[in-house]
## 1
Amino acid sequence: VQLQASGGGLVQAGGSLTLSCVAPGSIFRGSPMGWYRQAPGKQRELVAAMTSGGSTTYADSVKGRFTISRDNAKNMVFLQMSSLKPEDTAVYYCNAVRAPASWGQGTLVTVSS
């Protein structure tokens, strides 16, 4: 069973997208969950995280533009992205923060200038 991220696409700079991820309960329940991204030629980075209790952290590069949320009843985590920039172009993944499981396919976000 894999983590399944969806909602990516092509958007113009300044636009918005919302990503969704369904996680296996064994990974999701009680775990801090995060959204990661990997741009071409760069390392994967954590951009937003949320504990099961609702505490959040964000990378400086997305603070004020991205909002992470989760639905504990459905084992889902979301990432609302606004004021998108070309440098946000990447494949986005969700995963546990403390002990990441096998990475799913991710969802591609492309921001055109």
## 2
Amino acid sequence: QVQLVESGGGLVQAGGSLRLSCAASGRTFRSYAMGWFRQAPGKEREFVATISWSGASPVYAAYADSVKGRFTISRDNAKNTMYLQMNSLKPEDTAVYYCAADERVSSPFASLTSTYRMSTAYNYWGQGTQVTVSS
């Protein structure tokens, strides 16, 4: 089992920044895809960003068009933690943000496929952290 715990959410004004963290514990695997999704009230959960790697390979990342150029996904292996740096925040970024993980990947390029833009690709989820952007 893998446990994921998000933190770093909060209230910020439009144009501001936040950094979300997702700490992973439990089993560790050689290959991983991890992602961030968000869900606003009354809306479906949507893809934000994903990152994948295998062993010591470089990491590969992909972003939703709505956040490209503003958000950056990264990981710190030593801390077993994934991050989402969010800059130039907009009111429409307001949502509960969830991190997710899948250890069944066989390629470091997994994040570059359409599969990992779907929530169904991931088998571990965190509890979510609220991000509210005021106008």
## 3
Amino acid sequence: VQLQASGGGLVQAGGSLRLSCVTSGMIFRLNAMRWYRQAPGKQRELVATISSTGFNDVADSVKGRFTVSRDNAKDTVYLQMNTLKPEDTAVYYCKVANSDHWGQGTQVTVSS
């Protein structure tokens, strides 16, 4: 199983980014997916979850700003991040839920 995350970058506060995580080596449509993030000096935290059927949820800290979605035809999960804040700065990781399969992480930096 491989997960390739991309889409991170440097953005000003209030801006938007869309992260993508392309998977291979698994039956993507049968698996729930998650996005995590880890800021410097902090523990990794769960940001968003999307089930195999599309039910999704995001952390309270990003509710109303972040949206998780998936495209089963492309074996890809997305994290749309709007109205970004400096406190959203972190390395973002995708993960197959209920497994130890992680993507390599993509850096998001939000400047004030």
## 4
Amino acid sequence: QVQLVESGGGLVQPGGSLRLSCAASGFTLDYYAIGWFRQAPGKEREEISCISSSDGHTYYADSVKGRFNIFKDSANDTVYLQMNSLKPEDTAVYHCGTGDDYYCSVDGSSETGSPYYYGMDYWGKGTLVTVSS
């Protein structure tokens, strides 16, 4: 059974850092790209980063470029999102997701710009990040 579980969220002051984890089970990251998405209260879900399955390509939305870093530990089927220089506007529930046809390139993913992310087949339940003083 395919499952994604996020962890690492919490309360952090502006300018601080957090590292989120997305642990995958039931499939291997060697064959699936993983995306990180976030949804702030009252706002639509936003894709912020992704990492490809095999060639290491990564993508970042302009809102997080230069502050966030995505990487993975294939041996443990875990994808991480290192978040630095956090801002109050980064407050959101962060989800990781993937799909059978989901791919990631340096220019974006197969879902970049999609309003509803219909191509995502699997989602984690999310982890809450709150940036506040």
